[in-house]
Amino acid sequence: MKPVFIGIADTRLSDQEKKLFRQYEPAGYILFQRNITDRTQLKKLTADLRANSQQNIPILIDQEGGRVARMKPPVWPAFPAAARFDELYQKAPVSAIEAVRANSHALALLLQDVGINVDCMPLLDLRDPEGDNIIGDRSFGHNPEQVAALGRAVLDGLAKGSVCGIIKHIPGHGQAKVDSHKALPVVDSPIEILERDIRPFQHLRNAKMAMTAHIIYQAWDEESCASYSSKIIHDIIRKKIGFEGLLMSDDIGMNALDGDPVTRALRVFDAGCDIALHCSGKFDEMKAILENMDEIRPESFAALEKVTNEFSSASDFDLDRAENKALFDRCIAERDALFLEAAV
């Protein structure tokens, strides 16, 4: 097994993708809007991904709510952005936590229905008024303890629906003044500010998965971004934060990183990430990466197994069943009632 999560090109696996993935088995897959049309198609795609793998695998998606949602209306309902729960927290903290939990449970049921077992949320990045809007309303706020409390409710709600969450973007993206999709952000804040930003991650250090930030934090490493920095991964993420779960990079196709795709994958792996994330679906790139990557490290495979053993992507859960639809409706009704109560 190769330590890469792969994005495929289209709404079905091509014959050349099937052959490649049987020869060099990726550790998992990530899906995007380009891979999705409707429930029937998506269920078949995830079933095919599982059937083409020799082991139980994570199948990931970015389904946060708000502007980040790969499964969209009218097929699937829209969900609120994180900032809505921040607003509710200012009025009624307990209600906000319960609303997040119900919201995340409902999200998980939608994902479980189509065979997806990992959601790339919650963001634990603190909102910064001077930070780039790539975080913006995706953040649960600027207070570390509030963000941690709402983030924990996300993980709990997803788990109730048999989906694993990912805390991101460790050790914190909020202060970045440019979008790391477009360029390499450099954060020059002093240690005491950075230590504030890592507090939500410390509170949720027991999460099973985390995603790194492609950001240079000069106080920790003047030369390499977190995803490329063995110092940040080992000294900050693993030791200071205390995260022991499966650590994956953000997308190695982002413009924050330098080097060709293979170099990027090797660098995040050599720095200490368990998994490199490759999202583009470009066949030549994924083929080169899979051919050149070493096998997954034993400790990384053990962390991966903890995810797949608890959150199996193979499921007979079906939202068309009356009892499952009723559970989904109750989650949505509970969330909406909590918003309504706070507004009165």
UniProtKB/TrEMBL annotation:
The Glycoside hydrolase family 3 N-terminal domain, residue ranges: 12-296
Record keyword Hydrolase present: yes
Signal peptide start-end: none
Biological processes, Gene Ontology terms: carbohydrate metabolic process; peptidoglycan turnover
Annotated SUPFAM superfamilies: (Trans)glycosidases (SSF51445)
Domain of life: Bacteria
Entries under InterPro entries matching the protein: GH (IPR017853), Glyco_hydro_3_AS (IPR019800), Glyco_hydro_3_N (IPR001764), Glyco_hydro_3_N_sf (IPR036962), NagZ_Beta-hexosaminidase (IPR050226)
GO MF terms held by the record: beta-N-acetylhexosaminidase activity
Protein name: beta-N-acetylhexosaminidase
